[in-house]
Amino acid sequence: MGKLRGLVLVGVLGAVLFTASPASAFAEPVRPAVVTMTVAHASPVLVPAQTQPPGPVLDPAQTDKANTEKTKNKLIAGFIAAVLLGTVIWGRKIRSKKAKKS
């Protein structure tokens, strides 16, 4: 019975870790501002360079659709994992009953 509890605990923990996605993993690094110097009559003048957005512009509709598909895939994989875990536990129970009879 202790092994069964351990297997269930490992299965639940694996499902939680599989479905959790930390937001900090996708954080974009901070980029320093680019500054150019122009010399005019021996006095330096700092002129900020033109900056572009740090990354591509994403369409929120496409992002939501991708997140929905990813969530659906994770749910399907979690369900399959739970079914397989149940099958393994059920098979071990049957095998232990057969071993006790003989």
What does this structure look like?
The protein has helices spanning 2-19, 60-101, and strands at residues 35-40, 43-48. It is mainly alpha-helical and 102 residues long. It has a domain at 1-21 and 60-102. The chain has a two-stranded antiparallel ribbon. β1 and β2 (43-48) form a beta hairpin.
- The number of distinct β-strands equals 2
Task: Note the beta-strand portion.
Answer: 5-15%
SSE string, helices as H and strands as E: HEEH
- SS class: mainly alpha
What composes the largest sheet? 2 strands, antiparallel
Mean pLDDT: 78
Count of individual helical segments:
2
Keywords: Membrane, Signal, Transmembrane, Transmembrane helix
Region (Disordered): 47-66
Protein name: LPXTG cell wall anchor domain-containing protein
Organism: Amycolatopsis balhimycina DSM 5908
In short:
By secondary structure, the protein is mostly helical. It has two helices and two strands. The chain has a domain at 1-21 and 60-102.
List keywords for this structure.
102 residues, mainly alpha, 2 helices, elongated, two-stranded antiparallel ribbon
What layout of secondary structure does this protein have?
Layout: H1 2-19, E1 35-40, E2 43-48, H2 60-101
Antiparallel strand pairs: 1-2
